[in-house]
Amino acid sequence: MAIKTFNIEEDVYKQFSGYCKGNGISMSKQVELFMRSMIEDDPKVKKEFLERLEKIRKGKFIKVNSFAERYA
Question: Burial of 16 by CB count in 10 Å (0-12 exposed, 13-18 middle, 19+ buried)?
Answer without folding.
Answer: middle
